[in-house]
Amino acid sequence: MWLDSTVAPPTAATTKTPPLCSYAVSTIKFGFKIDITSSTNGIYAININEEAHPETRVEYSVFHSNQTSSREIKQLKPCTQYEHAVEFIDSADNMTPCSYTGNEPSELTTQMELKDIEDGSCIPGYVCYRSDWNIGSSMSASNNVAVERCLTDSTQFCIKPAIDDICTNLTTTFTSGKCMVSTFKIIKSIPVDYLNANELQPEIPTELPVDTIQTRLPQNCSNLNIVYTCLDMDDNSDPKPLTELEPFTNYNCTGQIKENNVSIKNTTAIKFNIDCDLTTTITKTSVTSTSVTLSWTTTSQKCKDVLTKSPKLTFLCSCVPHHSTHKRSKPSSGGTCLINGLEPYTIYTCDVEPHYKNKDLDKRTSIKDVETDVGIPANISDPEVFPLGHNEIKVTCTHSKKFHGPGGYYFARLRYNGDIVRTQQNKSHCHFIFKDLSYSTTYILEVFAGNERFEGNLKHRPVNTEYNDKAVIGFLIFLIFLTSVALLLVVYKIFILKCRQSQ
Question: CB burial class (10 A; 0-12, 13-18, 19+) of residue 326?
Fold first, then answer.
């Protein structure tokens, strides 16, 4: 509700006399004028609605304080029949209809002429028309696009040309059956300036090489094309043309829209990364006791030779033993790599990881249960010898338990003058006891770890047994016995001699 309040309303007086209330209506440019005459001072409600659409009723309020009060009603729809009514509102909000005293009929029809419509300029890239008539409902375009009202100027209505309206003529029709001239048509040329580059929808490239970025342009414009250049967002390199783009690279591409090879505007930047469908297949493996050789092929449907023949595409080969995070790796630029320094007789999972410009592409290919060949067992420590008696020794050594093959065992032997005189084998630990050896003898001890195919590095050292202590003790006892017997004989002879002398 609109209220004129330039003069404050007086306090309503209590009266039973019906208020004087009359009005007249006259047509003016772009609408009607309501004149309230010879009426009681106070507030009046003016109601206007389309005759065919009563729900469109609009109410205005005006304060009447002198002989005549007027209110102009504009921005009505052209070529439309309107109904009108005026009511007096007393202090108790009671409403009294006013009588119509005008010469015009009680239902009036608005008119419009072509000169009432002017060119507007509300929304860039739109065709706009302005008028003090509300032309939105009677306005339509040949491209069937909906009419939009200008947000900053209610007198303007706009139509957005479609992409194929550019470089053509757009016809706007103003239609109503209530006007003397029922149809007006305005034809406007739509130059390429109406093209909104931000609304273009280029097709993001997904394959290499890139010849062009497909972008739908107005089909009625001749000699119109887009030239794109792209910037690597990771290293801020120099702009590149489309034909030099690389895979697995973050690009920010901007196009220049050109007409007859003259740049007219830039497109909105588009960002993309061509992730090639790289497929690596391990075709062959060969092993030794300490190495694995992998052979593979690499294919790509999206990037073809641009990727597979690029020197920036490298591979990292690696082998990880089961239940371990330790990785033995080897870089390679071709389809074969040798991974050495591995443990013999060990099961590995081996990977081939493609990298582009030293970045992992997260496209790993694995092969499991690759077992290296049987090898020489790991070295044992220098053996330690402990004497258990004069002709008995204990031999021990330490070992990593890495036999590098099936049937692991420990072996010890004694040599004398080059000949093997004693041997022992132990499968659980490096521990041996040699008994009943020769006394006071120097042997050569040899110890090694072995498996079913190989013997490990030999550890050897001299071993000395001690003298025969039992023989020495027996000889001493015998010597003591002989000595005792001899002494007894001497004592006996002395005793006999004394006995003879005494007789």
Answer: exposed
Q: What is the dihedral of CA 466, 467, 471, 476, to 10 degrees?
A: -120
Kindly indicate the confidence band of residue 252, based on its pLDDT and cuts at 50, 70 and 90: very high
| Close Cβ partners of 393 (under 8 Å, ≥ 6 residues apart) | 385, 386, 387, 433, 434, 437, 463, 465
Taking CA atoms, 291 is separated from 98, 341, 379, in Å, by 109, 6, 19
Residue 377: closest CA among 459, 453, 288: 453
- Model's pTM, two decimal places? 0.66
CATH number for the domain formed by residue range(s) 2-109? 2.60.40.10
Q: Are strands 2-3 and 53-64 parallel, antiparallel or unpaired?
A: parallel
195-239 pLDDT, tens digit per residue, is 999 889 999 999 999 999 999 999 999 889 999 999 999 887 789
Residue type, 252: N
Q: What is the largest CA-CA distance in the chain?
A: 207
pLDDT in tens, 388-437: 988 999 999 999 999 999 999 999 999 999 999 999 999 999 999 999 99
Supply the CATH classification number for the domain 197-272. Answer: 2.60.40
What is the CATH code of the structural domain delimited by 384-467? 2.60.40.10
> Where do the structural domains in the chain lie, given as residue ranges?
2-109, 114-194, 197-272, 278-371, 384-467
User: If we measure between CA atoms, which residue out of 292, 291, 290, 271 comes closest to residue 282?
Assistant: 292
CA distances from residue 147 to 3, 141, 142, 167 in whole angstroms, order as listed: 31, 8, 12, 21
From CA 120, how far away is CA 207, in angstroms rounded?
46
Query: At 462, phi and psi to the nearest 5?
Result: -75, 145
pLDDT digits (tens, 9 = 90+) for 42-99: 889 999 888 878 777 788 888 887 777 888 988 888 888 888 999 998 888 888 899 9
